[in-house]
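Budget justification aside, the reviewers requested a transparent look at the raw inputs and outputs of the sequence design task funded under Objective 1. We therefore reproduce one unedited record. The lines immediately below are the structure tokens for a 438-residue chain.
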């Protein structure tokens, strides 16, 4: 390990000497008082501005980027006022006593303007985590640069390193790689969202093809972003060959389900066996596919629930796709009557009711069959077609309500079981009436 403890100690000693030299000057405490007074005035003005301006309703008709910029500007009113006051105080001190007596004011002015610029630039980033990381790092770099300590800190971070398989790792390298990776992934997300919006608006592509292209674009851009960040910091990709064996073992054992679901998802998108909008039944789960993701598909049941089914299950299990080749769906309604009813009249009424249903297809007439004689009555099976599998249960319920009303109007009764009870054993005693027996 290449470790230089003396360089770190020298940096700390020089920083302490600089602070000590400034603290011994009488102008230091005067500047510190001006900084504290300006901070109090800035906080009061900022609170007044925020209380007078409704930030939530500000610029509702503006573009989203302009809205965020103006709202951030209002929220940073205290910083802006403080920076302006510090700049005025510094110019006054320079004119009165020279630059040597305004070092603290110069530092406070530069730090305030740096923080204000960083916050305004960060308003253009949607991701809150990225904004916080970028703002913190940018302000830290700006502060070290303003204090004249950026180069010593960079040298110190680069002096501590460890070498693995020809790859030299240092804190500076890891920090640079992390920052570049965050920036690259953020730009990748913007580009992929733009491409996705273009793909989803294309009417020449099927829904499954759109999802497949979006996934390929996102994965490809992510791989490119990682490779670009590694190359930018000087990491040779061939130096990572030492980790390929461990990665292969990890993928083979620990990540096999994830890889299986990912590959299964690509297969499903390519063969178009299921696609967003299809009505499917997988095991005990039924519903309409609302989304197809890398690891799973989302099946909306229609009652607020969504089943997240792994892609592998759609490859290995039996799947019923109600809309695979034809969206026309056959509905079956089973019912029964007693033996007093005329079966031909029952079938005629059932066909008329099914034909008058609003969702029934006119091109495919309904059919009613007498299917079985039972001890309770006759059983019938009626079938009719609807244009799509949506609202199958409500359509079936509507038909059964109409059957009930028609049967009640025609005096047709539903079957009920008839049981004959016989008592075996001794005869019951017969009461004598007093009349002469014959």
């Amino acid at each position: 390990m290449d470790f230089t403890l003396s360089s770190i100690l020298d940096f700390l000693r020089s920083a302490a000497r600089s602070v000590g030299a400034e603290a011994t000057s009488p102008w230091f405490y005067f500047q510190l008082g001006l900084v504290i007074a300006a901070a109090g005035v800035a906080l009061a003005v900022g609170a007044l501005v925020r209380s007078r301006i409704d930030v939530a309703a500000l610029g509702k008709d503006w573009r989203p980027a302009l809205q965020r910029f103006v709202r951030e500007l209002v929220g940073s009113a205290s910083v802006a006022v403080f920076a302006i006051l510090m700049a005025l105080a510094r110019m006054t001190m320079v004119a009165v006593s020279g630059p040597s007596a305004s070092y603290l004011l110069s530092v406070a002015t530069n730090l305030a303007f740096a923080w204000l610029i960083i916050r305004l630039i960060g308003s253009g980033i949607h991701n809150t985590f990225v904004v916080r990381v970028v703002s913190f790092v940018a302000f830290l770099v700006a502060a070290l640069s303003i204090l004249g300590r950026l180069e010593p800190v960079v040298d110190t971070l680069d002096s501590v390193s460890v070498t693995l398989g020809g790859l030299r790792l240092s804190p500076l390298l890891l920090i640079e790689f992390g920052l570049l990776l965050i920036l690259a992934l953020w730009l990748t997300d913007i580009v992929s969202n733009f491409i996705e919006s273009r793909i989803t608006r294309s009417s020449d592509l099927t829904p499954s093809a759109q999802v497949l292209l979006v996934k390929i674009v996102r994965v490809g851009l992510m791989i490119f972003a990682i490779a670009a960040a590694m190359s930018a910091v000087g990491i040779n990709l061939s130096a990572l060959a030492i980790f390929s064996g461990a990665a292969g073992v990890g993928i083979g054992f620990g990540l096999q389900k994830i890889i299986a679901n990912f590959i299964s998802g690509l297969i499903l998108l390519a063969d178009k066996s299921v696609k967003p909008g299809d009505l499917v039944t997988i095991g005990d789960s039924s519903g309409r596919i609302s989304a197809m993701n890398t690891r799973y598909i989302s099946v909306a049941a229609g009652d607020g629930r969504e089943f997240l089914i792994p892609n592998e299950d759609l490859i290995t299990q039996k799947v019923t796709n109600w809309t695979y080749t034809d969206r026309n769906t056959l509905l079956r309604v089973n019912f029964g009557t007693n033996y007093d009813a005329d079966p031909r009249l029952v079938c005629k009424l059932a066909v008329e009711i099914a034909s008058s249903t609003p969702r029934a297809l006119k091109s495919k007439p309904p059919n009613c069959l007498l299917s079985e004689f039972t001890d309770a009555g006759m059983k019938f099976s009626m079938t009719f077609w609807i244009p799509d599998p949506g609202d199958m249960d409500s359509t079936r319920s509507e038909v059964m309500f109409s059957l009930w009303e028609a049967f009640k109007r025609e005096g047709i009764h539903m079957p009920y079981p008839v049981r004959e009870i016989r008592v075996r054993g001794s005869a019951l005693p017969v009461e004598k009436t007093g009349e002469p027996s014959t």
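The mean pLDDT is 77. The longest helix spans residues 171-200. Computational costs for records of this kind are itemized in the attached budget.
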